[in-house]
Structure formats: C-alpha cells, structure tokens
Design goal:
Layout: E1 3-15, E2 18-20, E3 24-27, E4 33-43, E5 51-62, H1 92-105, E6 116-123, E7 128-132, H2 136-146, H3 149-186, H4 193-202, E8 211-214, E9 228-232, E10 236-242, E11 260-261, E12 265-266, H5 270-287, H6 293-298, E13 303-312, H7 321-333, E14 337-340, H8 342-359, H9 363-366
Helix pairs in contact: 3-8
Length: 376
Amino acid sequence: MESKEIREYRVQKKAKNIAQTPWLILPGENKETRRLVQISFIRDSKETNKFVGLHLDLLFQKRKSLKENWPSKAVDLRKVKNNFGFKFSLDSIQTYELFEILEDSYPIGLDSISSGARTVIRGAEKDEIIITEKNKIEILKKLSKALSEEDINKWLRENISSISKNLALVRIYNERKKILNDFATSLAGEHDEDYWRNFFISNRWIFGASNIAIIGERRIDIHHQTDLPFEVEGGFMDIIEIKKPTFPFWIQSKKGGNYLYREKFLIPNSELQGAIAQTSKYILQAEKNVNNADYIRDHNNVIPLKPRGLIVHGRSIGWFDSEWEAFRLLNDRLHGIQIVTFDHLLERAKKVLNDLEVESQNIDELEEVDVADIPF
C-alpha cells in the first residue's frame, strides 16, 4: 500500500498521573506565524485508571522574516495565577490540524492513558494501518489469516533476498556485540598470549575486512613461528604478533608512572621493544621465501612479498596528550610495522559493528522478533 505520510509522536510520562506531549506545531495565519500546543493528559491521583481531563498550553510565535529562526521561548501556563484568565481560539484549519495530530498520536478514552510511540501510516485510499510497539506481531498474524498461502508465497519469493539478508545481519550483529562485550571484560583479566591468539583466530573480523584469512602454517622458518600470519588483498602475507594487555606500553619509573628519558621523552617498554625486534626478524625471514614455490604452497599459496607487521600490545585507556604524541611518533619511525593497543583494536571493532548496524536499517525492531512468532 502506498502511503501519503507517516507521522510519529511520543508521549512522555512526567508524573505518576500525567503524560505530556511534545510541542505540537499548528499552522498560523501566514508563513511567519504559527501556534504551538502542548497537551497534558491527566488521571486522578488516587484512582489512576480514571481519566479526568486535559491541560493545554498554547504558545503564539511570530518571526520577522522567513530567514529568521522561530523564537524558542515558551510560556508555561502552569505558572500563571489561578485567577488570571486566559483565552485563545483556533480557526478551522488549526482546529483540523490539532484534531489530526490527536487522532494520529494518542488513544483518548478507554479510561486510561498510555505512553510510548504510536505511528499511523495513511494510505492512498481509505485503508489505515495503526502500528504500535506492542501490536506488530499481532498485525502480522492477522495479515497472514487474511492472505492466501499463494499470496504469502508470492510475496516471500519476491522479498526472500532482503529478508534473508536482514535476518543474517541481525544474527551477526547480535553475535558480534556479545563478542565485543566479552572482549572488553577479558581486558581486565590475567589472560596469557595463547588466550588472546585463540580469541583473535575465532574472531578475525576484528582486524577488519582487509585481512581475508588466517594462514594455517604459522612457521616462518625452522626457527621462527609467528602468532597470526594473515592473507590480505592480492594474495600477500602480513604478520600479526599478539602480546598481553597487562604489559605496560612505556617504561615505568621506580616511583610509579612513566619514565621520562632526560625528563622529556617516553620510551617503549622492554616487552614492546622485544616485540618490534621479533616482528622485524619475522618479516625478514618470510621475505627470503618470496620466490620459494614450496614455501608458498605450504602457506596456502600466499606470497610473502613485503610483509607488513602488526603488533597488538598493552592498553591506551586513560592516556594523556604526551602519550598519544609519543605513540604517533613511535609508529611513524617504524618501517613496515604498526603498533596498536588492545583498546585501539576494541574501538576499531566497535566501528565495524556500527557500520553493520547502519547497514541493517531496522535492526532494533528485528532483534526483538522471535522467529517462532512469525506466522508463516
């Protein structure tokens, strides 16, 4: 069904017996004037199921020209003295608009007031579907009873690709969201390098889409074995070395805190210096086999041409500007090697997850739907 418009408003509960609308904008006499109405639905303070009335706040707004912003100051009629009279009138257009807003937005009557969003989709003809947060599945069930099996199958055939994609995206999103929660929790633990290597093997997506696959053969040569050899675009090899988040990133002073060389310069911790030397050696040894057919075959036909190294070491949460500057300079002077902290990796993975959430446009609605509730 084609739709002319979609309106959505939200009632906010302001007190135990009061639910309040946002300011509803009504047309004025011309483009430079308008009226705003805010409505409070009121229940009896003792008998909370008893609806006792409405309270309306009206604001007349005017601007000098179309280029000027609308005034933001509002009149709070609740602060007006009881003996002070207040009268306003709405013309036919404004009355109709207010009626439409109320009809679209709020269930009036039935001795109760509910809060939450209500969306009305107005059809091209007389048909109208009202969708609330609670009735989506019920509407789907009723719709399935009204349609024939042939109608449903036809619709499924035409839309199965997008449905499958959305359901798959929701499943992947939920799985990865849990994985990142586990990642963040594990950072506070005392896990060894093997734990983290296995964690990243199971969740290689954390390193981004450019890392296509983990190479099964970890040996660089007879004497050296790397943590995670990766295949990247073009069928080439990169090397990832995993250390521990508990390792300090900078050399620590005996008094506590970071040691400053000549009271000015931060120096990488000895474990990190060792990781840099280790990765540099792995890159050198791997590149010696760039033309070795047996070596390439043993490494999933991935070519060790100019391998790049990535070192995951320590944490960066709570860093000051001086540490970020030293970190930037450290990475700048390394050739073919990049250093990241576990916090960097976690934040990058969250961004990958956010991109996935954007791609699945209705993910918040879909993840609430149980497959068992789908009536066909």
